[in-house]
Amino acid sequence: MGASKPEIPESQDSSGQSVLPELQGWLREIAADHRLFITAAKGGNRIFEEFSPDCKPVTGLPQERTLLPVKKVFLPPSEPLFEFSRGGIEAPPTPENTVVFGLHVCELSADRLLAANMAHDRPDFPYMARRSQSLMIGVSCRRTSGCFCEKTGHDHLAPGEYDLFLHLDDPEHPRLAVGSDAGRELAANAPFPVEDPGGDVIAPAAAAPERWPLEALPEKMHDSFGAVMWDELATRCLGCGNCTIVCPLCYCFYTRDETELDPANGRRLRLWDSCQLLAFARVAGGHNFREARSERIWYRFSHKFMRTWDTFGAAGCSGCGACFHFCPVGIGPRQVIAGVLQVTTNSQDAGGNP
Amino acid sequence: MAKLSDIPPREYNTPHNEYLPEEARVLSTTELAPGIRHFVLEFVDPARKEAFSFCSGQFMQVSLLGIGEAPISICSPPTIRGTFEICVREAGNLTGALHRLRQGDTLWVRGPYGQGFPLAEMAGRDLIFIGGGIGLAPLRSAIDCAVCLNDEFGELTVLYGARTPELLLFTDEYDTWRQHGRVETIVDEAPPGWQGRTGVITTLFDAVDLKPENTSALICGPPVMFSFVLGRLKELGFADADIFISLERHMRCGVGKCEHCVVESFYTCRQGPVLSIGQIRGISSALR
Amino acid sequence: MKQGPGPEPEGRIDISKNPGGKLRVGIFPLTSDAGCQLEFLNLQDDLLALAKAVDILHFPMARAFNVDGPFDVVFVDGVPARRDELEILREVRRNTKVLASLGSCSSFGGVPAAQRFHDLGDLKKYVYRGMEDLDTLEILPISNYVRVDLQLRGCPASKWEIMETLTALIAGRLPQLKTYPQCIECKIKENRCLLIEGQPCLGPITRAGCGVVCPSVGVPCDGCRGPTEEPNLTSAVEILLRGTTYPDLIRKFQKFCSLSPEYQEMFDRWRETQ
Questions:
Q1: Which residue in C15, C16, C173, C177 has the most chain B C-beta atoms within 10 A of its own C-beta, making it the best mutation to test that interface?
Q2: Do A279 and C229 lie within an 8 Å CB cutoff?
């Protein structure tokens, strides 16, 4: 049960916080019979990467969050829904068991909400085929990314909401909390003291820990439709789509058929889309149901704070701050939500839904 | 309302891959109007053909491999089993390619999707159908259903507008419909010699006598038509809960995942495409 | 996309009655550095299969004998800079069902359009010394002269778009060229963001389709593929000026796609503020 004395982690090099040396051995063991994703450094960012013997897993960098969220493992940026040929259509094989190591509290919480969304109503088969067989291993974060999970409620996990969680807050005494039966199996060979069953995991506190009035936001979002604040955001927004691509809780997609030189052979691809693009709501014939950039921005936030709340009782924003970090013009949820709360208290400013 | 806590993370069920279409054969195809074709289809798989059922107002995701996929309403009544019909206006890659299909060719479909017109709840009432252009297609499914289940409904009224006389669809069926009520048509513009009406569709309301308290309204057409028609129905005293409208939106998945068809708080593909005005009250972006 | 004068396309391309059932392709060079046509030869892995699957009937760079049509699709590389090239362009339009502008020269004037930012007399005197009687046209996108059915952008045009165009036309669909910004693909590749580091990267307002070649190797996007749909240029310029000077930024916009309507409108606004 990994009773060996925990070693002091490798000193933090310039690229950030590397993993404990004994962890590398455990990960290698996991990778032997799983498709294992870890996080590594790329261009100053943390990214999810498939484990290879010579990869260098890290648990944290000065930028704590990953560039692309874990959705990329279960909902790839581009995937064939099926291949076709003269023989008909064929769905791609179901991927093998996946383990993801290195998720922070907000990432685990958001992943769980995304999975619930994909499972809800009519399940999304390709996503669920990958996600339902997967194990998620969390690690402690240090809250160095200007993030705000306490505002959105994605700052804590109950046991069961993680499979395993590696507590690194005391680097001298790492401990591995068990959150599920599947996690327990994997923990058997872990080189750390195991806490079984594991308890609640709470993200490190932020300077201003008060939560947004999430219960009140759906109505306030609704009322803010057409308000001047969206026009002001639209004058700055470049419509680049960065915010949606890096968001752990954005998942929209489009489909496209691709053929080979022999047109009988090809595939129907599904690819990440972005609601911030002009063409997103355009139908054949040219009519566009969301022509104005201001409405597209409102739409994105209404999904996060109105529709997701109404459906799942959770905010569709993890508070990771990735959208703000990667926005060239600095538009982010904190500013927008402050604006929404403001707009509805000064109701004369609201364009408003009838 | 589903809650996140209701869905345990390790017990997701993955019963059916919604994204895999099935093959259907073109039994016949005719040109209804310039640029608009009508197709009678059946599933190639006999078991699927046997089991297939739908409601008026539901749609299929129709595709050709290597071209693409789009949502298209079923235009035949659910009372006809074994086949289903669609009406296609040529507007792009897929619809252009569909127009080139001939009898015996196959295409790919999945569905049916969405909520149709709640005809069962309208039993005993008069029905008014208000259509514009190719919006008559889903209404025709409901009209033929009402015609077939004759005793279930009161009087039928069809108000239908198109851009030109030659773009009026299903003209050879109006006489059958008239045996169960009234059919009034109007066009935006007409060549000299046109005997019928020209003008906006709301003028047709003057030609018919309605009992609003006992009538349900079923509407499908271009968004520009909605506000005028709804205004008129309100004047006549129709209740919001008795007016049903079929919305068009960009759709990719049909199952509430791709996010394209969302209108504020609902998925057009799941809660729609048919919604009552009561359901969309207060959502200003729904009726554009 | 359709632009430029001329009748509408005659519908779908029926290649079933062509010799061998093959798509008839022409690649016509006008004034340019020929880099875009070279991309056909750079298709490497697909080149042999491509040569078997389509009939490339006109391609002076690679063929000794060239046919003047009829074609299903013609790719025009470059812009008419001489009167005889204008005649070639008009003739080509008559002989093809689909006409595609290949690259940013034919789509937006490209680098040759730099001619427009100088006095033509001066250019003849200093650049074409001894050729003062040179008869040259004002550089304009080919859509100023003929109807263009497809616009393949970039300097050079992207191999992906060339293949998508050919495979689409063979399959009976119009190609789906990307209209979204570079940022989408750049984020998906998990590149570091040069723009937020303060570099003048045109990614957010430039169309994807090249595979974000430059930012992937740490070089800011130069905008060779031209503006996205409805680019917010006013806001973008404000951000870009954090990492460059005003004259350099103007030159950046003038480099490849100066004659795109969106950039033209921006230049007009600039001139008004001067």
A1: C173
A2: yes
Give the whole-angstrom CA distance, residue A108 versus residue A102.
Answer: 10
Give the DSSP letter of residue A304: I
Residue with tokens 């699709």: C73
CB contact under 8 A, A160 and B264: no
* Chain A residues within 8 angstroms (CB to CB) of chain C: 42-45, 47, 67-68, 77, 235-242, 245-246, 256-263, 266, 272, 274, 277-279, 293, 325-326, 328-329
Beta bridge partner(s), residue C77: C29, C102
For chain B, the straight-line distance linking the first and the last C-alpha, in angstroms and rounded, comes to 27
Contact (Cβ atoms closer than 8 angstroms) between residue A230 and residue A295: yes
Q: What ipTM was predicted for this assembly?
A: 0.90
How are beta strands B68-73 and B59-64 bridged, if at all? antiparallel
All residues of chain A having their beta carbon less than 8 Å from the beta carbon of residue C170 are 259, 261, 263
Which element (helix H / strand E) includes B225?
helix B223-236
The reply to whether residue B67 touches residue C171, judged by beta carbons under 8 angstroms, is: yes
Distance CA A222, CA A299 (A): 10
Backbone torsions φ then ψ of B5, nearest 5 degrees: -65, -15
Helices C261-273 and C246-257 pack at an angle, to 10 degrees, of: 150
d(CA C197, CA B229): 54
**A299 touches A201 (CB < 8 A):** no
Residue A348 has pLDDT above 80, yes or no: no
**What does the block give as tokens for C146?**
């003929």
SS3 B275: strand
Phi-psi region of C96 (alpha: psi -120 to 50; beta: other; left: phi over 0): beta
Tens-place pLDDT, residues B93-152: 899 999 999 999 999 999 999 999 999 899 999 999 999 999 999 999 999 999 988 888
A9-31 pLDDT, tens digit per residue, is 333 344 455 667 778 889 999 99
Q: What pLDDT, on the 0 to 100 scale, is given for residue B15?
A: 65
Q: pLDDT confidence of B10, banded at 50, 70, 90?
A: very low
In this complex, is the C-beta atom of C16 within 8 Å of any C-beta atom belonging to chain A? no
C contact residues 155-214, partner A, Cβ 8 Å cutoff: 164, 166-168, 170-173, 176, 179-181, 183-184, 187-188, 190-193, 195-196, 203-205
Helix (H) or strand (E) holding B38: strand B36-43
Q: Which of B233, B224, B162, B159 is nearest to B198 (CA)?
A: B162
Partner residue opposite C229 with nearest CB, options A261, A278, A328 = A278
pLDDT at B156 over 80: yes
Q: Taking Cα atoms as reference points, which of C90, C63, C87, C62 lies closest to residue C74?
A: C90
Euclidean distance between CA atoms C184 and C193, whole angstroms:
11
As given in the structure block, the two tokens for residue A180 are 């599920």
Report helix, strand or coil for C246. Answer: helix
Q: Residue B52 in contact with residue B43, Cβ under 8 Å?
A: yes
Q: Check residues A268 and A19 and name the one with the higher pLDDT.
A: A268
Cβ pair A135, A171 in contact under 8 A? no
C11 vs B: CB within 8 A: yes
| Cβ-Cβ contacts under 8 Å for B34 (sequence gap 6 or more) | B166, B167
